[in-house]
Design goal:
elongated; 264 residues; 5-stranded parallel β-sheet; 56% helix
Length: 264
């Protein structure tokens, strides 16, 4: 197939043609940056191929950024948390190397579970959201939900005969982040419905949970011992367990700020 070539275009005409083509092809980054990059290419005596590569890479980079932003938004995180803002020095119970290994998302790729266990204020939710964000940025579909909200949604879906559809929806995401598991006791029906979600995802897609209770105390949340054991098995088999300890660095920071203000 021959390509029609337009010779002798003035610069304004060429700019207009590029603008129109970028609009037509839905290339917003190239449309916004081609003039600046063209000037830089002329100054640097860049080859045509080099200039084209710069344009295409700028479009790809920006498109990947927008996709990551959409995945992070779709995850439903309640607030922004990043690993770079986590204060490892304030919680020596947590191994930075282990967390940064998890940030590679290999466990999500393999469909393995992750459990973050520790008292309130030890960084569980921060790490859960931050690792979920890393997974979203790496291209995985992520969903964040509070344990009680998930159970309530499942109960409502069962009452409205939409349970199969709801479980399938939670089963499709690559990583399901369940926060505050263990804060409230679940009745048998709620526990069984949660178990169905975990079974749907078993050895296929990852589940990450944050809990303020050790596994031995999960019978407070899941009052049926056999069901409790089955849920613990689903959440630990082949996975990673990170214990964040019992010393609240959030409380320590609050006290430190109060002392500084008192001194000031």
């Amino acid at each position: 197939m021959s390509v029609t070539r337009h010779r002798g275009l003035t610069e304004p005409a060429a700019d207009a043609a590029i603008d129109a083509a970028c609009r037509n092809l839905r290339l917003p980054t190239m449309r916004g940056q081609f003039s600046e990059l063209a000037d830089a290419a002329a100054r640097d005596q860049m080859t045509y191929r080099g200039f084209l590569a710069e344009l295409l890479m700028a479009e790809c980079d920006d498109r990947n950024r927008r996709r990551s932003e959409r995945r992070i938004k779709a995850a439903g995180f309640p607030r922004e948390k990043a690993l770079r803002t986590f204060e490892f020095d304030a919680n020596p119970a947590i191994d930075p190397a282990a967390i940064h290994t998890l940030a590679s998302c290999d466990w999500v790729r393999k469909g393995l579970p992750l459990c973050l266990i520790g008292d309130s204020g030890t960084g569980k939710s921060h790490l859960l959201i931050a690792l979920g964000t890393e997974a979203a940025m790496a291209g995985f579909r992520v969903k964040y939900v509070l344990a009680t909200k998930l159970v309530n949604e499942l109960v409502e879906a069962a009452d409205e005969k939409l349970l199969t559809k709801t479980i399938a929806r939670y089963g499709r995401v690559d990583l399901l982040c369940i926060d505050e598991l263990g804060y409230m006791e679940l009745d048998r029906r709620g526990a069984e419905l949660l178990f169905q979600v975990l079974t749907e995802r078993e050895e296929k897609n990852s589940v990450a949970i944050a809990s303020n209770e050790s596994f031995s105390s999960w019978t407070k949340t899941f009052t049926d011992p056999r069901l409790c054991a089955a849920i613990v098995d689903r959440l630990t088999f082949g996975g990673n367990i990170i214990e964040t300890g019992s010393d609240s660095y959030r409380l320590a920071h609050t006290k430190a700020r109060a002392e500084q203000q008192a001194v000031g």
